[in-house]
User: Fold Phospholipid N-methyltransferase from Sphingobium jiangsuense.
Amino acid sequence: MHSIADHLKFFRQFLRSPKMVGSVIPTSQIVIDHLLAAVDWSATRVFVEYGPGMGTFTRPILDRLGPDARLIAIDTCRDFIDHLGDAIADPRLRLVHGSAADIESILAEEAGGLPADYVISGLPFSTLPPGVGDGIMAATERALAPGGALLIYQYSTFVLPLLRRCFTNIRYRRLWRNVPPCFVFVARKG
Assistant:
């Protein structure tokens, strides 16, 4: 659960970089539960989170993650990375100030070259500069283990054509109970 100070910090970051944060409020428990239900936790060794922000998904992922697995959280915002470093003391968590487009080199450094079993993203693909979303999608597909999955939550279906260029096994639905309603996507490799 986030404090009022956490919500204010998140909102301030949104005001500074609305195209990178993408939402005024952190993601709801409805979205968290829905997306994390798609994960086979017993088989997960490497989990990657793009844009962890204030840790809305980070904490629930760590709660479910096995003792020998690792979570690599990547964010372009140094303030969010610093906040998570101060707020969460867990040896399974690796915090990376960087870009999701660099997932392959990040995995080489932080996971000993192991592929990602799962990647979760709330990056605002509709506001990324042209070509950046395609680059992130292609790098993510290459970085996933066979049978691995990319889990995405968005407020539109803008990301669907990007997904279809890299993945053939895609499921998605709208979660009406979320405020505001959002779409969740599960794209499996191979």
User: Anything to note?
Assistant: Residues 4-16 form the longest helix (13 residues). The chain has one domain: 4-188.
